[in-house]
Amino acid sequence: MLFNSCDNKTSYTNFNDYPTPVNENLWIQYTPSSTLFKIWSPTAQEVILRLYKSGNSSKALSQHQLLSGNNGIWQKEINGNLDGVYYTYQVKIKGAWLAETPGIYAQAVGVNGKRAMILDIKTTNPKNWELDQGPKLNHPNEAIIYEMHLRDLTILAQSGVTNRGTYTGATEIGTKNPQNRSTGLDHIKELGVTHVHLLPTFDHYSIDESQLDKPQYNWGYDPNNYNVPEGSFSTDPYRGEVRIAEFKQMVKNFHDQNIGVIMDVVYNHTGKTTTSNFNLEVPDYYYRQWQDGTYADAAACGNETASERAMMRKFMLASIKFWIKEYHIDGFRFDLMGIHDIETMNQIAQEARKINPNIIIYGEGWTAKESPLPYEQRALKKHMQQLPHIAAFNDDLRDALKGSVFDDKSLGFVNGALNTEESIKFGIVGAISHPQINYSKVNYSDAPYTLAPWQSINYVSCHDNHTLFDKLKISRPKAGMDELIAMDKLANAIVLTSQGTPFLHAGSEMLRTKKGAHNSYNLPDSINQLDWDRKQEFEDVFEYYKNLIQLRKAHPAFAMKNANEVRDHLKFHQIGHQLVSFTLENNANGDYWNTILVVYNASAKKINYKLDGIWQQAVSGSTFDLKGSQIIKGTIDIPAMSMYIAFKQ
């Protein structure tokens, strides 16, 4: 393919010939006396900067020609204090003017993200922001992650939240439902998780921010401006500074409760293609193409970005570092991480850890469709051993627990499937190499793929596909409520007592339902919202989850630091149809319990289990006694459909 710049100065035979000023600062540089504007567009003939009074509708205050400099950079310094002024760039390519764009490095925008805003960004900092920090982790699998959509958390009228569906509402204190049960942030704190994972909260296209009085819903996986908070969660999307200040205050409020904030990031594709902000600056450069010039689409959303190209890699690195430094973000979940190249992901992890050693980075280790990026370069689940500071979702365990997410009727360990035990064991050890696992019988992986157990994000449900409760109900239509509750409890009991990093879908602790919807990305609040009435209705489920989390936090044996520790201290014992048992031995990871016995009984009948020596009972059915008041020896009855734990001091 031949690419020509149209200034007749330089011609490029391919994207690799483009000048790539990777060390150049491309953020706008504001001072009270002047602002420096920069844009990288090596094929542009002209670039115009327009200044506006508002983020929408108003006519331009002034127009300025940017000057062409070295390495494809256009820039101009404008004198005066421009704080609060909005702006756009417009690029001329091949004799034609493209549409106006806020630029890919916009840090603040007006309504619907069409115009960028010049902002003295430090004025958006909450009080004592310089002292703010998230939770500290000795190693990543100490985290217990709670995945939620901001709107879902508080939009229900009975949530007791004043500013429902907003950044502000997400961290209101003292909110209760009509049954006087805590909701929102207080609920999350009560549950005991360490981190919230927010579905996309950067600026996305789906929601019309000028029509927030009309019902609208979307998960937000259609990026518009990557470095700006989404306006529909703010109390005023028209004023660019408001969403920034409210987002920061939300982060600080979570941090004040010792809860970290993880952002769901979607650098793998953009919400639009030909008119995306990337293409309005440097047409086609930021995207992969097939040999015939058509856009590749491994994201199944119309395009895929080219992380291996120097300026896309630079953009991703700059963006991640910006969110950590400016917003104090504690982690990132990469959507369809397999679309990105290994080198870029490793650079991101290294740079992020320099700023915050406690950062958590994980992603989906797959693609949605085929990609031109060579297989061996992809940041896939299979390649996690080449990504030593990054984790990936363990779909082997997910589908082993409850059945395939792509087949409503399929079953897993907790709802009646046969021969899932090796996949359960694979999840228990965090996808490492362990001598007691037969990898030929693991769901999708015929070999271990992690270097350390924390690299396995262990989960049974997330925002995608059915909720856990809905999947169990659909796959076992004749099961009674007591059976469904037992299955649900056992599924996340396995997640929370395994060596991987545990990940919970918000609301699973109160049997969240989406009324059977499989893909709720644009369905109304009535489907997606957390129903806080269920907290009282299924109070025993909530208490069980809360106790599980307390158990994990109290006992470091469930979160060993490395693979050698797991191999040395974790031994599997009786394995049979719908039965998996193991011990954590010799004060694993410094645990004060010397030996811990864990038994998962997924059968519909109690099991008589033979013990050697004298033990203390910690968990039986839904009863938790972490002091181990009851002494047991000989044989014990493991209740049907449950987890059992005993220990020796």
UniProtKB/TrEMBL annotation:
<dbReference type="InterPro" id="IPR049117">
    <property type="entry name" value="pulA_all-beta"/>
</dbReference>
<dbReference type="InterPro" id="IPR006047">
    <property type="entry name" value="GH13_cat_dom"/>
</dbReference>
<protein>
    <submittedName>
        <fullName>Pullulanase</fullName>
    </submittedName>
</protein>
<dbReference type="Pfam" id="PF00128">
    <property type="entry name" value="Alpha-amylase"/>
</dbReference>
<dbReference type="Pfam" id="PF21653">
    <property type="entry name" value="pulA_all-beta"/>
</dbReference>
<dbReference type="Pfam" id="PF02922">
    <property type="entry name" value="CBM_48"/>
</dbReference>
<dbReference type="InterPro" id="IPR017853">
    <property type="entry name" value="GH"/>
</dbReference>
<dbReference type="InterPro" id="IPR004193">
    <property type="entry name" value="Glyco_hydro_13_N"/>
</dbReference>
<dbReference type="InterPro" id="IPR014756">
    <property type="entry name" value="Ig_E-set"/>
</dbReference>
<dbReference type="InterPro" id="IPR013780">
    <property type="entry name" value="Glyco_hydro_b"/>
</dbReference>
<dbReference type="InterPro" id="IPR011840">
    <property type="entry name" value="PulA_typeI"/>
</dbReference>
<comment type="similarity">
    <text>Belongs to the glycosyl hydrolase 13 family.</text>
</comment>
<dbReference type="InterPro" id="IPR013783">
    <property type="entry name" value="Ig-like_fold"/>
</dbReference>
<feature type="domain" description="Glycosyl hydrolase family 13 catalytic">
    <location>
        <begin position="154"/>
        <end position="552"/>
    </location>
</feature>
